[in-house]
Amino acid sequence: MINKEKQISGIAIKQVFLLVIILVLAGLICFNLALFIPSVLGAITIYVVCRKYNFYLQEEKKWKPWLASFVLMLASLIILILPIYFIADLLIDKLGNAQAYMAKFNIFLEKIHTYIDNKFGFDILSKENMDKVKGSVGKISTVALSGTFNTLTVIMSMYFILYFMLEKPRLFEKILTSSAPLKRANVSLIGDKMRKLIIANAIGIPVVAIGQGVVALIGYFIFGAPSPVLLFALTAAGSMIPVVGAAIVYVPVCVYMIAVGDTGPGLGLAVYCLVIVGLTDNLLRFTLLKKLEDIHPLNTVFGIIMGMNLFGFMGLIFGPILISLTLLLIQVYRNEFSDNETHPELQLPDKDDDADNKVDLIL
């Protein structure tokens, strides 16, 4: 006699079958539209940043939806996109000639190595390791630059998608909310956490990076560092890397200046960067980033590595968001299918006094 308790119910079979179909179709969509994934991520990022202003203009000021959308798109382009694109374009322009760049980099690295070896008797890198470093830097540069060449196409596609999000925001959020196969508390948790993560990554990290880059640029000009504008772009990009930060750029530059005989300016630049640039970093992080979502450094490290491989330069922002989103979805999965009905982490977000409290999905 068959034990009926061990039989798989017809409902469960239907659920599994439907889930398989959904996953297959989603996989086909993602595979064939993979080129537009950075554009979609960018559009969602800017939508979250502009969301409350969009509702304010459309619902409080009674602006036409198309006018509010175009104004916010223009503002985001000037404030958010152009500074990042400027740094990317600068790196492309300066490092576009890969052969000439690598020749200069090899001379730069050789002078630092020779100086440290002669001065302190410390062979910081053997010839074999030096060749490995040069090869690795060349590969990283090529990957970063090749991923950045399509930035303009990504931006154009991103704003095309963003317009339709901003024009009818209530409809867009209703579709997202109704499509999520989750409890309302989990949908609210995802919306609140994602809003904080996106704001921290899209605004906090670039502001800190550009702030450090500008302060370092002043020092590069004062002390006569080689290619100060290029070093500004590299310092801004390097400051996004946790732990080492901007030091990964200005420390080798200071050693190089001392190695070629500019001892005074090199030491002056070292003191300037350690004190002024370091103070700027701490000031911005403790005043700005502390008010935003606290992101673990490992999320940023692995997010940047993955993001650069997937999206090129834009991956500096999207990579950490995807890592944080993955961890968040694991938490939501545990909460969704746990036997306990009450979870302290699923408390609904505090009520805002903004106009955007009118929807359930808090982006």
From TrEMBL:
<feature type="transmembrane region" description="Helical">
    <location>
        <begin position="198"/>
        <end position="223"/>
    </location>
</feature>
<dbReference type="Pfam" id="PF01594">
    <property type="entry name" value="AI-2E_transport"/>
</dbReference>
<feature type="transmembrane region" description="Helical">
    <location>
        <begin position="12"/>
        <end position="29"/>
    </location>
</feature>
<dbReference type="InterPro" id="IPR002549">
    <property type="entry name" value="AI-2E-like"/>
</dbReference>
<feature type="transmembrane region" description="Helical">
    <location>
        <begin position="229"/>
        <end position="259"/>
    </location>
</feature>
<keyword id="KW-1133">Transmembrane helix</keyword>
<keyword id="KW-0472">Membrane</keyword>
<keyword id="KW-0812">Transmembrane</keyword>
<feature type="transmembrane region" description="Helical">
    <location>
        <begin position="66"/>
        <end position="88"/>
    </location>
</feature>
<comment type="similarity">
    <text>Belongs to the autoinducer-2 exporter (AI-2E) (TC 2.A.86) family.</text>
</comment>
<feature type="transmembrane region" description="Helical">
    <location>
        <begin position="304"/>
        <end position="330"/>
    </location>
</feature>
<feature type="transmembrane region" description="Helical">
    <location>
        <begin position="140"/>
        <end position="166"/>
    </location>
</feature>
<feature type="transmembrane region" description="Helical">
    <location>
        <begin position="266"/>
        <end position="284"/>
    </location>
</feature>
<protein>
    <submittedName>
        <fullName>AI-2E family transporter</fullName>
    </submittedName>
</protein>
